[in-house]
Amino acid sequence: MKKINKNYILFFAFVVFAIISYLASFDLGIRIWDNFLVFAKDMVLILPPAFILIGLFDVWAKNDQVEKHFGNTSNPLRFLWSILLASTTVGGTFVAFPLANSMYHKGARYSSILTYVTAASLFMIPMSIMEASMLGIRFTVIRLIGSLPFIIFGAILLEKYFEKTNYILPEIID
Amino acid sequence: MTSLYVFTSIAVITSYLFNPEKTKKGFKKGWMKFSKTLPDYLKLLMIISVILLLSQDFIITYLSQDNIFIGLILSLLIGSVTMMPGFIAYPLAKILVNNGVPYMVVAGFVTSLMLVGIVTFPLEKKYFGTKATLMRNSLSFMVAFGIAILMGIFYGEVFI
Question: What is the rounded distance in angstroms from the CA atom of residue A163 to the CA atom of residue A157?
């Protein structure tokens, strides 16, 4: 028999705790559960289509294509592709982590996927629009343009280190 | 959100028309990756729901510091350990600005919130491994620091 992941057990306890909180009108427990729902709603909506796309990416994206745009033989344009891909990634890092992992195993360079993951949390289009409306367009523009050199320089720096130490990302397989 | 569904539908239909077999395989792969990480997503959600209890008042109090650099360090630390969706984070950021908290401190909070994921560590570890996750987050912390300083310079809050 397959072992049940301990996080499922934890989640079961969490749900029971929420139900008891509601029955006993335990305010703190109710607030925790409400917070949970806020995020869970997004996850339920975003994750299924996102993972379908990641699966399709896995079977269709050819290794030499990924390599050409994000890999070893590629030019500095790969940073542009990474950032463009990132700004259109819905779901931020939750979706970016698994996709970056797939890209890596299809031959993308470290600097490409690191740029991608970092940019995915900083360059999300809907979030940036919201930020500009709340804090002013100036804030958003400085943040976006200002972060570019940091992102790319940081990605190259980490890549140098990972290549020197022959670091390999874990693979998600059966 | 709608665009994600439209895009996915088009991708699935196109893929199916070209090659049904490959499409099924893609679904299987997607499901496999999803089910492998679902427990981690769940754990993450549970941790976040507790952390969000860290009330907004708490954040406002701690970020309203007289010393701008103490405010900056606190904003980076609080931003790193918390995690909240944009529709909670940005109204909060606006309150901070209205309360006279410098833009540099607000930027430190917002960017470290987005970039540094202490809560997402277990999830990121699955895809990047412990070492890469550690290094990426440490670097992200410094990037958030850099962006905040830049913001301070542009808004005339710090002088170099």
Answer: 10
